[in-house]
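Hi V.,

You were right to ask for the full record rather than a summary. Here it is.
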Amino acid sequence: MDNRPTLDEYFMEIAKVVAKRSTCLRNNVGAVIVRDKRILSTGYNGAPRDMEHCLEIGCIRDQQNIASGTRHELCRAVHAEQNAIIQSALHGVSVEGATLYCTHQPCILCAKMIINSKIKRVVYSNNYPDDEAINFFEKAGVKIDFFKPG
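Predicted structure:
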């Protein structure tokens, strides 16, 4: 009997560990970008570099009762998917043709970045109230897979 995890299980487990670094008070999200079975970069959601985190000053979205999946521009956090793409860019690593593993379904803002960075597949395990992101992926030809832990 082979108890080895599949590649999707393996990289989703890593995304869950990455999410533990998140400083968001609402959702701890982790992302891992992979190509040819190799990790290119990781990211988690948190405030921009050298700025106070929500863990320290509170969540403006909670304070203003902003529903999940709306008014993304009011969130202090850079999303996990954005941070993973940014880290790749900072280190000169192309993500073209890669797969992005994420603990949560990307929002519409992240979907647009993922599409433009030429990531070809997105695997996620928690739904997010943003159907437009899924529509964008489908129209752009990005393969999307909901990951159900086995």
